Amino acid sequence: MEKISNLLEDKPVVIFSKTSCCMSHTIKLLISGYGANPTVYELDEMSNGPEIERALVELGCKPTVPAVFIGQQLTGGANQLMSLQVRNQLGALLRRAGAIWI
Predict the structure, then answer these.
(1) Taking every pair of C-alpha atoms in the chain, what is the biggest distance, in angstroms?
(2) What is the C-alpha to C-alpha distance for residues 79 and 2, in angstroms, rounded to an integer?
């Protein structure tokens, strides 16, 4: 978990992703559509990607990607983010984390 905490430090939005995952791509577009500039870690392009993926599983991320952290807190995966979007709560969450200002 320390490895993940270090990757989250001082970043309002972090997405753990894989380049081949269509849901990861969708979530990146959704968050970017708000004007946020998320930090994206493509696990399949990182030498320690499998290690980070194991840490995400320990945190309860199933499936492991996309895993979205907003305000250094695990927000969830694609289902959770889409639910927040449908309930019109994602924008407010991004604002509170300092990822967007409007």
Answers:
(1) 37
(2) 25
Is 76 in contact with 68 (CB distance < 8 Å)?
yes
Structure letter (DSSP) for residue 7: H
For residue 75, give the 3-state DSSP assignment.
strand
State the Cα–Cα distance between residues 95 and 13, nearest whole angstrom. 11
CATH of domain 1-101: 3.40.30.10
What global pTM score does this model have? 0.94
Full DSSP string of 8-73: HTT-SEEEEE-TT-HHHHHHHHHHHHTT---EEEEGGGSTTHHHHHHHHHHTT-SS-SSEEEETTE
Q: Is pLDDT above 80 for 102? A: no
**Reported confidence tier of residue 78, pLDDT bands at 50, 70, 90:** very high
